[in-house]
Write a structure and sequence with these properties.
0% strand, mainly alpha, 231 residues, 82% helix
């Protein structure tokens, strides 16, 4: 009887890190700018931003855990279904493999030869069906907790960046806000640059795209605070 193969970790560090760091930075920056526009009380601003940091970090980590766990459960359920079909409906599975091989350019005797080799290795056949029929990547048993850790820590790091000037410039909130924007832009630039260096694409366009998205969201927080403060 076939069993579900042992899962191996999948490299999702980059997406988890970008998700956490960008979300933490953008949310806290938006809150800070909104509060500076609406209030001159540095204590209130710091308390609100720290509360947002704590809540956002735990929330983002929990979301990363549950979403990754759901992907693992889906992968395991589909794996069991494919194993059952390989056992109970072998001809249907062979035809599905033929379809994949035809899409790769195999025809005639060469196709049947490849099919026979794949069918002789059940794990290879299962992996082929999971990857190219269902388009489902493997999700390791350790992946949910790893995603939780990375997103949690990245959200904390991202949230701290715009907060730093407000600890150092408690009596100059407008100056602290400007410094916070500069530090946030620098952090977003580094994240975008790292993404492009790790994957594909222009480092400059990726970096400036990240800055535009992040500061745009932060500016929305400033507008809310500004108009509420004027009311």
């Amino acid at each position: 009887m076939h069993r579900v193969p042992e899962e191996h970790p999948r490299p999702t560090f980059l997406s988890d890190f970008i998700l956490g760091s960008q979300d933490g930075l953008v949310n806290v920056l938006g809150i800070l700018l909104g509060l500076v526009a609406a209030s001159a009380d540095s204590r209130v601003i710091l308390i609100a931003a720290l509360a947002a940091l704590a809540a956002e970090s735990i929330s983002m980590g929990a979301v990363a855990y549950t979403s990754t766990l759901a992907r693992r459960h889906l992968y395991l359920a589909e794996t069991e279904r494919e194993l059952n079909e390989m056992r109970d409906l072998p001809e249907m599975e062979r035809e599905e493999v033929r379809t994949i091989l035809r899409n790769w350019g195999f025809e005639g005797a060469e196709l049947e030869e490849m099919l026979a080799k794949i069918e002789a290795k059940p794990k290879a056949m299962l992996d082929l069906m999971m990857a190219f029929e269902l388009n489902l990547p493997r999700v390791a048993a350790s992946a949910p907790f790893q995603s939780f850790q990375v997103v949690l820590l990245a959200t904390i790091v991202g949230s701290v960046i715009p907060l730093l000037p407000f600890f150092l410039l408690t009596h100059a909130l407008v100056t602290a806000a400007y410094v916070s924007i500069v530090l946030s832009a620098a952090m977003l630039f580094v994240v975008g640059w790292y993404e492009a260096r790790t994957t594909l694409g222009s480092t400059w366009s990726s970096a400036f795209r990240m800055i535009l998205i992040g500061l745009g969201a932060g500016f929305a927080g400033f507008l809310v605070g500004h108009f509420i403060g004027q009311g």
